[in-house]
Amino acid sequence: MHSPGPLPVNIPPARYYYFNDRIVDAHAPLLQLQDLGLFRGYAVFDFLRTQGGKPLLMERYLQRFRHSAEAMRLTLHLPDATLAELIRELIRKNGFAESGVRLLLSGGYSPDLFTPAEPNLIIRIEPYTPAPQSSYTQGARLVTDEYLREWPAVKHTNYINAIRNQPRVLAAGATEVLYHWQGQLSECSRSNLFIAKGGTLITPPLQQVLAGVTRGQVLRLARAAGIPVEERPLKLEELWQADEAFITATTKRVMPIVQIDHHTIGAGTPGPLSRHLLELWEREVEGKM
């Protein structure tokens, strides 16, 4: 949406993106200033990554992207098979060892800056760097915020609250902000939350959170492994009594959480269920690419 600024040292820039009907130079100006995504934040997106250079669980991400677009009344003209081939071509042309893939569908060039028009589709490729190993061996931290996310089932571009909280997250040495509302937990700004209590895995239901692709796979792995699972409303006080907690996301996989605000979770180290599910993820999902 703007000319790219300087990239951090050692982060190579992308060379090619996709815009509407063609592959373009990554530094070419794309959007006109009439786009509804710029002026009203009316847009949806999704993000996937590669594993071994190949898109991981791409079919599920494209399904979610299309669901978000339909919910926002934005027409995604290209079929998933065409989108998948474009993504593979962009990955090849950009040549990163591992790639992140961002899909964006905006509200288009609105004549009155309020009414959605023909959407603009952008596919952006970027280098992907995994989370540090210490996040898995030592665990990560979260900070909380009382906030009710608008339309959590749709992956829209409204991340105002997450960005507003970013100074708190950084000051606390945390990974993300965890949302709760009137005593009920929901999700983090960019991931889903799980706790474990007495050997049972508990996570808020889909009515309250985004349908995370990693979340869905972890639930499948847990059930296949015979781990009891509950998808139900989760009270804030249950968090402080949990044996362990972890978050799931595209870039975080199964990341143990050992501290939230000033509360230590469980023993303050990654728990056995978190470690087991991460091992299953590495073997059954990443290992089968």
TrEMBL record:
GO terms for molecular function: L-isoleucine-2-oxoglutarate transaminase activity; L-leucine-2-oxoglutarate transaminase activity; L-valine-2-oxoglutarate transaminase activity. Pathway: Amino-acid biosynthesis; L-isoleucine biosynthesis; L-isoleucine from 2-oxobutanoate: step 4/4; Amino-acid biosynthesis; L-valine biosynthesis; L-valine from pyruvate: step 4/4; Amino-acid biosynthesis; L-leucine biosynthesis; L-leucine from 3-methyl-2-oxobutanoate: step 4/4. Belongs to the class-IV pyridoxal-phosphate-dependent aminotransferase family. GO terms for biological process: amino acid biosynthetic process; carboxylic acid biosynthetic process. PANTHER family: AMINO-ACID AMINOTRANSFERASE, AMINODEOXYCHORISMATE LYASE. Its cofactor is pyridoxal 5'-phosphate. Pfam families: Aminotran_4 (PF01063). The keyword Transferase applies. InterPro entries: Aminotrans_IV, Aminotrans_IV_CS, Aminotransferase-like, BCAT-like_C, BCAT-like_N, Class-IV_PLP-Dep_Aminotrnsfr. PROSITE patterns: AA_TRANSFER_CLASS_4. It catalyses: L-leucine + 2-oxoglutarate = 4-methyl-2-oxopentanoate + L-glutamate; L-isoleucine + 2-oxoglutarate = (S)-3-methyl-2-oxopentanoate + L-glutamate; L-valine + 2-oxoglutarate = 3-methyl-2-oxobutanoate + L-glutamate. The keyword Transferase applies. Keywords: Aminotransferase, Pyridoxal phosphate, Transferase. Gene3D superfamilies: 3.30.470.10, D-amino Acid Aminotransferase, subunit A, domain 2. This is branched-chain-amino-acid transaminase. It comes from the Bacteria. Its EC number is 2.6.1.42.
